[in-house]
Amino acid sequence: MATVTMPQLGESVTEGTVLQWFKQPGDGVALDESLCEIETEKVAAELPSPFEGTLGEIFVPEGETIPVDAPLCTIIEVAGSAPEEEMAPVAAAAVDGAAAEAPAPTADHSRAGVYSPVVQRLATRHDIDLAAIAGSGRGGRVTRKDVQAIIDEREREAAAADGIPPAAAPLPLPDGEVVPTPGVATVAPSDAYDVVPLSATRRKIAENMARSTAEAPQAWMMLEVDVTGLVALRTRERERFVGVDLTYLPYFASTVAHTLTDFPEMNARWHGDELHRYRRVNLGIAIATERGLVVPVVPNARDLSVAGLARRIDDLVARAHAGKLRIEDMEAGTFTVNNTGAFGSIASNPIVNHPQIGIVTMERVVRRPVVVDDDAIAIRSMMNVALSFDHRALDGAEAGAFLAALKERLEALG
Amino acid sequence: MSEVSVLEAVRETLDEALGADDRVFLLGEDLETGGVFRATDGLAEKYPGRVLDTPLAESSIVGITIGAAHYGQRPIAEIQFADFIHAGFDQLCSEASRWSWRTRGEQYLPMVVRTPWGGGVHGGQHHSQSIEAYYAHMPGIKVVAPSFPADYRSLLKAAIADPNPVLFLEHKRTYRLIRQEVDGAPAEDRIGHSRITRTGDDLTVFAYGLMLHESLAAAEELAGDGIECTVVDLLTLNPLDQETILEAARATGKVLIVHEDTLTGGLGGEIAAIIAEQAFEDLDAPIRRVAGPDIPPMPFHEAMESFFMPDRAKIAAAARDLAAY
Q1: Owning domain of residue B131
Q2: Which chain A residue lies closest to B100 (C-alpha atoms)?
Q3: B186 CA to chain A: closest CA distance, Å?
Q4: In this structure, what CATH number is given to the domain that contains residue B253?
Q5: A100 and A69 together in one domain
Q6: How many whole angstroms from its chain centre is CA A106?
């Protein structure tokens, strides 16, 4: 019997709330399989089981908050792999080499006790007595499909007992006769819409967005930036750049990080009655994934070159899409950059990533005629940069000065 | 929408690359007159001075390619038959593969070496070999072996754009045999991924080149008997797409790897090792290989060649046996 405790999900986190249990007492649990969803002030995460076995007792009901290291539940560990009596008949396998050549007659049980790794694993996880199964494989071997059929059957039975139809289609009976599944009509959703349960990520995004707009009075401003020089610079360097595709984002992120050095009031987090100004720029990068929006952080972004940022961002994007971001990737952001131009947007109104106080977007680079030198018209590459900020923390004058400085730095590139 | 053969796909992609980038040029034996398989037919006239004949000297073909890439060109070499590429082995494996490492990543070699490989054309011992395992063993050389015309287009384009040396293998039996409807420009693609081309829950077959087509034919036949195969087109042999390989292996727990290269030291061993190391607990049967026998030359006589080459019947027989395990 092992006890699972509340993990420390991030520095400075002291407690966590159990949002949801995925397993109930008596359920089989694989190593690293998610036990429950835990939320802290920094992040919501699924807790992988540190042990394989069966869930024993749950100490913390859903919705309850407990301190770090307090017990969450117990797990009855698996000893070894399969029970010994199931492993015993292996010796029978050695004698059937010749028998394998001919199609196996049904009476051949020479491989009845030979269990493949996947069969043993599934049987252990689902508590299945392999010796009781008449295998369909050669020499009566129990195959993965044999075990899977039992697991599927159990799930169907469990679902039927709960009154939940496993699927919209009626269950075919073994003899081919089809009867309507009881209970379908009463639980079927309306034809007019589909019910989509919210993922943990979606719920977290919704909560953060709602909290930010509810708590922080946000103001917005936008400037036009002439990035003709940047476009030429990036075109030149992209050609020579190896490993990852060089986009505008690392240039933009680098420029934002350097501009923040001159505006420490923007590089801050709002904490009730005090403002924490950070000495390092930990730059959040908004990334749209199939699972939803995530904002991993490039720590100490000012210390990285454009090339270094390109590789860091590429790594974060790849891991964001693969769902492999770690807790530490999400921590301690001090300011956020959102590349809305990637969607083709030319103006957007971002929501501040609370408790940070500022977020800038880089919009799509557009070639268009611009008045230059007072009286001439030229075709320039133009990009809008939009800033949302928490008006509690600072005012339009400071935010405007920051945005103007960012514009100046961007226009100096190339 | 038009139907193109593997050969036409290669030629069109070379044509587009020559048209799109002045740094691209072709070199190899008999290329000016169109090459022995006609892969460069008409290109010397269309791009004067950029389709170059070379002497019968593979070491210098590869060496010149390395030099041109080093000086900023985008050379595409053709080795007339893969059987002869070993004369350039030292240039590829001792020089090209490690250039980026030797220069601490400061320099790189954007070069492609194309070559027709494989048997089934009664080419005998010097025009039928599978050479991929020697080069896929070498870190620093990407090895690509597509099966369908659309992939020849997108992956040859990706190979030309790649800053690293790429060995691009074209199965000569499929040059005119395999045709496919393609539309528009080649898809944007990257080197390093495999594709699950067919799904089934009884067993998983891994193959590339001609053997992918033979495997698909076998899978079709087996489906008639209720045996459903997942079939993976490996596409890239170095680096192997471990993620897709493991996903496909785990899907069924029974793995059959097919290549016409000889068994010992062939890529099947590496793929089997990846699966055994990382998906052991998902396996439901011993991993099987169908490969050429450990005999040095591919025979010329049709009956002997058929004995040597894996085909749909041999693949189907092994698959049935594995499915019944």
Answers
A1: 2-182
A2: A242
A3: 19
A4: 3.40.50.920
A5: no
A6: 48
